Amino acid sequence: MTDESQWLEKRACKRFPIPDAKVRYKKPGLLVLIRGFAGPVPVRNLSKGGVSFECDEGFEHDQELALELLVPMESPIEIVGQVKWQRRCQSGAHRFDIGIQFLPFGKSRGFNSMEALERLRALDRIYAEQPPVAQQPRP
Hints:
The protein is an alpha+beta fold. It contains two helices and six strands; from the N terminus they run βαβββββα. The chain has one domain: Thrombin, subunit H. The chain has helices at about 30-35, 115-130; strands at about 20-25, 40-45, 50-55, 65-70, 75-90, 95-100. A hairpin with a 7-residue loop joins strand 5 (about 75-90) and strand 6.
C-alpha cells in the first residue's frame, strides 16, 4: 500500500469543490435509452478535465460513462468521460470514490461539445480562480 502523500499530481487542471454539486451517470451502450441515469451522487471536486464523485458502484478502468453534472443555479451539463481511478471510501465499505477524465472537446462526432467546455471554464472562473473569502472578526 502506498502513502497518498507520495503520489505525483498528474492533473493538468486545478480541481475545485462546488457546494451541493451532484452528478448522474450511465454506462453507454445498447440499453442507454432504457437504463437512464443513476444517481444523483455527490461531486467531490471538478475541473475542466475531469470530475471525482462518490457512489455505490465500482467501474472498470477506462470504462466510458455519460455524465450529467448538476450544479446549483445552473442547467445540467452533459459530458462523457472515462474512469481513470477508483478506491473504496473510508466512509463506507460499499462505497467508492471514482475519478473521471473527460473525453476531448471538439466539433466532431465522438468529442464532448465545445459548449460543455465553455460552461466548465465558467465554473472554473467562479469556483477555482476566486480567492477564499476571509472571515471577518466578530465585534
